[in-house]
């Protein structure tokens, strides 16, 4: 169980009150009443609240929620913003379980609106009534034909089905809902608006437990409560329901727009994407990709190692499809001898039976041959899904191809991904829609959806083989207290007590001690300022590398003290750290942990220098991680071939990096809640067997100034 609120009475209420009911054309209260009274099949009690009317049509109006003969499960608030707070207080006092606030003019408008939303949260805390919205279109339970919404399009979008949609914005949510025009129905849609209380995460969690929802599509403008989101998507994974997500706010423009729209928290795009991948959530890049991918999951679930076949009547289209499949990293299936023999029975002699399969135009008017060739490919044991692009509209001929695809799909569990490429829609397109095939509109989009489908099957197999540990952010209580790590020597000592290697070093408080330490360690040495007030030493002029003799070290002593004092006048300098140089020939990497506002401790790894600073070549995971996670993180880096050894260089000690990542994870986990930030930069990596060295370390305790 996820531990969140039971929303069953929100999605399937026994009684509803419409506060602000109206028969005025074009009004929110009017549309909401039409949707409930005329276009829904709701059989419970419907109470109309309007103190200025005795009745609307043949339905009685009540002056207030307090005057009702019974307490409704849900109250729909369709009154002006100035009247919303009074309506919410009245509903809470009556004991209403859920209030849906359609009205806008709150947190999205500025500080005054945010103050009103704070008052709404106080109502929730005082009464236990849950608030949905404000600034939202409500929700739609298509599978029960119930519209708790003022949308005039409700009556048009009523194809029931297995997809659940959870969004913050209303317009794009309705766009998702209307994808049912391509043949896949949507069962539930919730659009959370400003999320003053109930959030997208609550609706994901509910859909994870809903028996009539098989796939969850979500559109996120921000994640307010990372813990709740993690619990929700973990609940969905436990119920084996794929979650497909489009996260808005990945650019600065997008973040600004999302915040002005629903006043949500956009978060770090890189962290968001890493969390989604780790939790098995399928992230997409655009709204049409969200639709295509969710629809593919609604049709079939992937196994651990799905391969693709292409069937087409156009050689160029078959070649284009194969090219895109290869570029996406998918694998074409090798057809079995039995399949090839079956194909040879039905194809013209000049057609080569292979994958991709170009059947040629010779069989387009032969339904039996069309069915037999497609069936043979779909039922090949090596084929996980079939891509069938249709490049043109040829009237009855293309209709025959579409009919064949629909017939064969009814006979096989292998999903056939039909692609209608022509801008001219025809009877063939309509046949695919009627058959529930959800025709995609380009080969590129189809391949993207298939790639994500295949990826989720691989993720599912790994998750089943080795369940992921509970994220630190979800664990209750604190870990061990963190010792003083305010300077690099103290941070490195802490690392060494947990098994991590650092270069030999000494702390010198005078120039004489510095020279003695350098002679003991062996020239050349590194000299670094020791100060709790100087976290980034290089920026303050506090580092010298390759110091070769006593005279140079004396000059370095004076220069570092002068530069650091100029850069950070208030800094107390405790001396210099004199450290042995790292062996030549190593590769520098970076390992870091920071506490994300939404999701808690996140570990990052990347190659040093330009790879991190310019190319942003970094892999991330929520803590804790396993050794397999650490290896996967390293393989994700674009610069991973450098670690494997290129141009005659020996391979680096990749396993030592992976063990270090796990050691850092264990370290932060042991001190859960006490570590705000930890960075090892650079982490020197030697050849295989030489291990790693933490050349620099920075640790910041939670609550300490940064």
> What is the CA-CA span between the terminal residues?
39 Å
Low-confidence runs? 257-267
Structural class: alpha/beta
What kind of sheet is the major sheet?
7 strands, mixed
**Multimerization state:** single chain
**Helical content band:** 25-40%
The number of distinct β-strands equals 28
Overall geometric form: flat
Percent of sequence in beta strands:
15-25%
What integer is the average pLDDT? 93
Q: Please, how many helices?
A: 23
Strand order of the largest sheet: 3-4-2-1-5-6-7
Cα radius of gyration in angstroms = 31 Å
Q: How would you describe this structure to a colleague?
A:
The chain is an alpha/beta fold and 706 residues long. Helix content is 38%, strand content 20%. The chain contains 23 helices and 28 strands. Strands 3-4-2-1-5-6-7 form a seven-stranded mixed beta sheet, sandwiched between helices. A hairpin with a 3-residue loop joins strand 23 (587-596) and strand 24. Helix 11 runs parallel beside helix 16 (443-465). It is flat and about 95 Å long. Residues 257-267 have low confidence and may be disordered.
């Amino acid at each position: 169980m996820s531990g969140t609120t039971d929303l069953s009475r929100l999605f399937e209420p026994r009684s509803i009150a419409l506060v602000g009911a109206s028969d005025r054309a074009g009004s929110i209260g009017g549309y909401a009443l039409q949707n409930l009274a005329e276009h829904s099949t709701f059989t419970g009690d419907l109470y109309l609240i309007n103190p200025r009317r005795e009745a609307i049509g043949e339905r009685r109006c009540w002056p207030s929620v307090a005057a009702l003969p019974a307490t409704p499960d849900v109250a729909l608030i369709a009154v002006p913003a100035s009247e919303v707070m009074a309506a919410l207080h009245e509903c809470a006092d009556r004991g209403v379980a859920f209030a849906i606030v359609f009205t806008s003019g709150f947190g999205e408008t500025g500080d005054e609106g945010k103050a009103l939303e704070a008052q709404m949260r106080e109502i929730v805390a005082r009464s236990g009534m849950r608030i949905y919205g404000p600034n939202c279109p409500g929700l739609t339970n298509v599978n029960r034909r119930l519209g708790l919404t003022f949308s005039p399009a409700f009556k048009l979008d009523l194809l029931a089905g297995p997809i659940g949609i959870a969004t913050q914005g209303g317009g794009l949510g309705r766009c998702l809902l209307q994808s049912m025009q391509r043949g896949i129905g949507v069962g539930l849609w919730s659009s959370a608006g400003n999320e003053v209380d109930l959030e997208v995460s609550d609706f994901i969690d509910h859909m994870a437990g809903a028996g009539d929802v098989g796939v969850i599509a979500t559109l996120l403008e921000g994640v307010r409560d990372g813990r709740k989101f993690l619990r929700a998507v973990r609940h969905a994974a436990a119920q084996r329901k794929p979650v497909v997500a489009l996260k808005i706010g990945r650019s600065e423009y997008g973040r600004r727009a999302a915040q002005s729209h629903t006043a949500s928290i956009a978060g770090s795009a890189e962290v968001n994407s890493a969390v989604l991948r780790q939790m098995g959530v399928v992230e997409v890049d655009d709204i049409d990709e969200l639709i295509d991918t969710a629809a593919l999951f609604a049709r079939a679930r992937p196994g651990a190692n799905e391969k693709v076949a292409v069937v087409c009547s156009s050689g160029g289209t078959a070649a284009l499809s194969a090219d895109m499949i290869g570029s996406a990293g998918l694998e074409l299936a090798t057809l079995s001898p039995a399949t090839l023999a079956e194909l040879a029975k039905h194809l013209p002699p000049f057609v080569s039976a292979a994958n991709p399969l170009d059947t040629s135009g010779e069989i387009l008017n032969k339904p039996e041959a069309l069915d037999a060739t497609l069936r043979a490919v779909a039922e090949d044991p090596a084929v996980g899904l079939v891509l069938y692009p249709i490049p043109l509209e040829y009237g009855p001929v293309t209709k025959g191809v579409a009919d064949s695809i629909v017939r064969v799909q009814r006979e096989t569990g292998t999903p056939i991904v039909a692609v209608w490429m022509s801008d001219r829609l025809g009877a063939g397109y309509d046949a695919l829609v009627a058959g529930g095939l959800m025709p995609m509109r380009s080969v590129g989009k189809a391949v993207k959806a298939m790639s994500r489908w295949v990826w989720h099957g691989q993720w599912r197999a790994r998750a089943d083989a080795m369940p992921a540990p509970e994220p630190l952010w979800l664990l209750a209580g604190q870990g061990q207290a963190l010792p003083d790590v305010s300077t690099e020597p103290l941070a490195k000592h802490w690392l060494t007590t947990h098994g991590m290697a650092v270069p030999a070093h000494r702390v010198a408080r005078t120039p004489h001690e510095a020279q003695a330490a350098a002679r003991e360690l062996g020239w050349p040495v590194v000299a670094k300022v020791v100060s709790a007030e100087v976290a980034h030493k290089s920026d303050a002029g506090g580092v010298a590398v390759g110091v070769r003799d006593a005279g140079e070290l004396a000059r370095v002593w004076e220069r570092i003290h002068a530069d650091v004092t100029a850069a950070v006048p208030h800094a107390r300098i405790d001396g210099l750290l004199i450290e042995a140089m790292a062996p030549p020939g190593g590769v520098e990497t970076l390992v870091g942990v920071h506490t994300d506002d939404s999701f808690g401790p996140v570990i990052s790894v990347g190659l040093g220098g330009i790879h991190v600073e310019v190319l942003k070549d970094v892999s991330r995971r929520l803590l804790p991680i396993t050794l397999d996670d650490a290896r996967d993180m390293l393989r994700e880096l674009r610069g991973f071939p450098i670690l494997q050894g290129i141009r005659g260089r020996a391979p680096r000690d990749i396993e030592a990096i992976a063990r270090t990542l796990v050691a850092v994870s264990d370290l932060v986990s042991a001190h859960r809640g006490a570590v705000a930030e930890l960075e090892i930069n650079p982490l020197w990596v030697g050849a295989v067997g030489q291990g790693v060295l933490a050349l620099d370390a920075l640790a910041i305790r939670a609550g300490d100034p940064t």
